[in-house]
Amino acid sequence: MPPQDQSEPFPWHLGVYDAHCHPTDTMTSIRSIPSMRTKCLTVMGTRAQDQALVAEVADTHGVKSGDPGKWPSDEYPTPFSKFLAQTGDRLERYPYALVGEIGLDRSFRIPFPWRPEEGPDRDESLTPGGREGRRLTAFRCNQKHQKAIYKKQLQLAAEYRRAVSIHGVQAHGMVYDALKELWQGHEKEILSKRELKRRGADHQTAKDGVEAEEEDLKPRPYPPRICLHSYSGGSAHLNSYFNPAIPVDIFVSFSTAINLGDALENETPESFVEMIKTVPDHRLLVESDLHTAGEEMDRRLEDIVKRVCGAKGWGLEEGVERLGKNWRRFAFGTDG
Predict the structure, then answer these.
(1) Alpha carbon 286 to chain centroid, angstroms
(2) Is residue 325 a contact partner of residue 17, using CB atoms and an 8 Å limit?
(3) What is the model's pLDDT at position 216?
(4) pTM for the whole thing?
(5) Burial (Cβ within 10 Å: 0-12, 13-18, ≥19) of residue 253
(6) Pick the residue with more confidence: 108 or 227?
(7) CA 272 to CA 260: how far, in whole Å?
(8) For the chain, what is the total number of helices (H) and then of strands (E)?
(9) Which of 95, 167, 199, 221 is a plausible cystine mate for 103, CB 3.0–4.6 Å?
């Protein structure tokens, strides 16, 4: 199916939210953020050094709560225990920060280092330290090790009650299993209509009142909200997350960059339309997953919003409002 009707004005004024992006990969583009039409960017890191860069962007352009201060660049390499402690310090300092992106990737291989002769050809607009097209070695990261690191980061998010953006490539079952190991034993009690009637209205009223508030404040070993970013698995794995007994609020985001191979302006594959239809309306998010801020990020977000609205049969204003509400619930745990 084609993107949503291009003749309908795009409702930027309602607020469009990028659920996952990497503008710190191109720090020279950060200056363009104030001129963007997108209302808010959810900036992700992919390596330890990115945290200082994300903090720098948050200091200038972030959702404010007090004076966040400045952070120096991280030492490299850093023991994971120290990295985890630094991450906790930043979550403490930035009360609206999320954890991400984290996850599992069977396809990951360590890139070759830069060779001296490649220096003159490097794009100076890009932040040093990224892959930047370097060839990949044959060396992979052990899946057991990846999972152990992933679970510790999930537990840190649980400790600070923060949302998490999750990366999963060729490891969707493992991503789910690791989360399940954390929430197991804490599943919600799902009562049938008959059981609700048998227990009576008093029980439900109590659960909806003070008891429910006290329950929400208790420490949990799992994060409160997660987003499966640019989800690339099948519907069978995805449907596992929609079990109403799961105590985590699950969201799923999509991008043209990953899910459609940068197929801007082209027909939307029917398989993608069916995947969008699989996701409940209140769980959907959109993202650019782009490495540079500015007009191109706006363009990609407009494109994916139109495709999602077309798949769901939403008008653009209805869709933008729904997606904005979903993002606020994912990022902050509230619709406001």
Answers:
(1) 9
(2) no
(3) 63
(4) 0.87
(5) buried
(6) 227
(7) 8
(8) 12, 9
(9) 167
Listed residue (223, 227, 229) closest to 105, CA to CA: 229
Residue 32 three-state SS: helix
Give dist(CA 99, CA 202) in Å, integer: 39
CB-count burial class (<10 Å; 0-12, 13-18, 19+) for 39: middle
From the list 266, 256, 321, 316, the residue with the least C-alpha distance to 289 is: 256
Written as six digits, the tokens of 224 are 């409160």
Q: Does an H or E element contain 103, and which?
A: strand 99-105
Please give the pLDDT value at position 249. Answer: 97
Measured CA to CA in angstroms, residue 243 lies from 28, 221, 270, 284, 325 at distances of: 43, 19, 25, 16, 22
| pLDDT for the residue numbered 293 | 97
CA–CA gap between residue 12 and residue 32 (Å, rounded): 17
Residue 241 to residue 249: CA distance in whole angstroms: 9
Kind of pairing, strands 136-140 and 109-111? antiparallel
Would you list the DSSP string of 308-329? Answer: HHHHHT--HHHHHHHHHHHHHH
The torsion region of residue 66 among left (phi > 0), alpha (psi -120 to 50) and beta comes to left
Selection from 306, 230, 316, 232 nearest residue 265 by Cα: 306
Q: Are the C-beta atoms of 126 and 62 separated by less than 8 Å? A: no
Cis peptide before 101 (omega within 30 of 0): yes
Of the candidate ranges 34-43, 69-78, 151-160, the one whose mean pLDDT is the lowest? 69-78
Q: Which of 176, 107, 92, 185 has its CA nearest to residue 143?
A: 107
- The confidence score (pLDDT) of residue 55 equals 95
Q: Which two tokens stand for residue 201?
A: 């209205």
- Structural contact between residues 264 and 300, judged by C-beta atoms closer than 8 angstroms: yes
**How do beta strands 225-228 and 164-169 pair?**
parallel
CATH superfamily of domain region 12-106+140-188+217-332: Metal-dependent hydrolases (3.20.20.140)
Q: Report the DSSP beta bridge partners of residue 293.
A: none
Q: What is the mean pLDDT of residues 100-119?
A: 85
